[in-house]
Write a sequence for this structure.
């Protein structure tokens, strides 16, 4: 099977899948559903989508160690996002706010959540359980964040919904952009990696938005969307699968 992007190291993170080798790469679950079994290849996606990790030794960011797949950090299991915030705040429903963070009026925090250095949470924002806002990130007016990571300098500035998602370094969401996280039939969220359907094993999973991407106003991403670094999405679009 040839990959459409197999010669592009950013848009096609798994050149090994150009020719499928079932014993080495995937375990077939059903006709249209596959599960990655190579930890090295799966975690490579983390660095492909978020290359900013390679040059960032100072920011306090979540720890992916021990997870088979990058999205699994969003689970509520031991070692997941909420568990890691608890270890920092010291309380199960604790809220950690760095003293340099700017907090506007009317902000609602639902612990556990983490607000990092020099970040900004504007008027009437709603941070629900498992919100990890890294250094320099921005959560704007009437924006709702739920069990999600905003990596350094990511911005969700105006009337956004970010559910069970990861925004990469320097990502910007246009006004009204929504990252949806639940299927209407409440089934597991599939991921599409170069035409291969991966069962995430999760019923709530939003989008993985690569570093430097710009999402236009009123864009809606369907559950399980993966957006490559530097992608520009026009306003009023619906985004699905691998973009």
């Amino acid at each position: 099977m040839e990959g459409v992007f197999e010669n592009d190291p950013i848009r096609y993170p798994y050149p090994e899948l150009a020719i499928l080798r079932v014993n080495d790469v995937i375990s077939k679950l059903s006709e249209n559903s596959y599960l990655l079994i190579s930890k090295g290849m799966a975690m490579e996606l983390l660095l492909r989508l978020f290359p900013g990790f390679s040059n960032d030794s100072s920011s306090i960011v979540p720890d992916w160690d021990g997870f088979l797949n990058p999205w699994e950090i969003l689970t509520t299991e031991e070692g997941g996002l909420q568990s890691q915030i608890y270890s920092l705040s010291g309380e199960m429903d604790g809220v950690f706010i760095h003293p340099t963070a700017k907090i506007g009026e009317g902000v609602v925090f639902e612990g556990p959540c983490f607000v990092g250095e020099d970040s900004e949470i504007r008027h009437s924002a709603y941070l629900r359980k498992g919100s990890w806002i890294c250094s320099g990130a921005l959560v704007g007016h009437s924006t709702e964040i739920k069990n999600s990571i905003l990596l350094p300098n990511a911005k969700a500035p105006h009337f956004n919904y970010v559910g069970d998602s990861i925004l990469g370094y320097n990502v910007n969401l246009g006004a009204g952009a929504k990252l949806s996280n639940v299927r209407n039939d409440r089934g597991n969220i599939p991921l599409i990696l170069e035409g291969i359907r991966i069962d995430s094993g999760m019923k709530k999973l939003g989008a993985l938005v690569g570093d430097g991407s710009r999402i236009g106003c009123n864009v809606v991403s369907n559950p399980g969307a993966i957006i490559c670094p530097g992608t520009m999405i026009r306003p009023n679009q619906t985004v699905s699968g691998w973009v």
Summary: The longest strand covers residues 26-30. Confidence is low (pLDDT under 50) at residues 1-39. The helical segments are 39-49, 81-89. The CA atoms of residues 124 and 161 lie 13 Å apart.
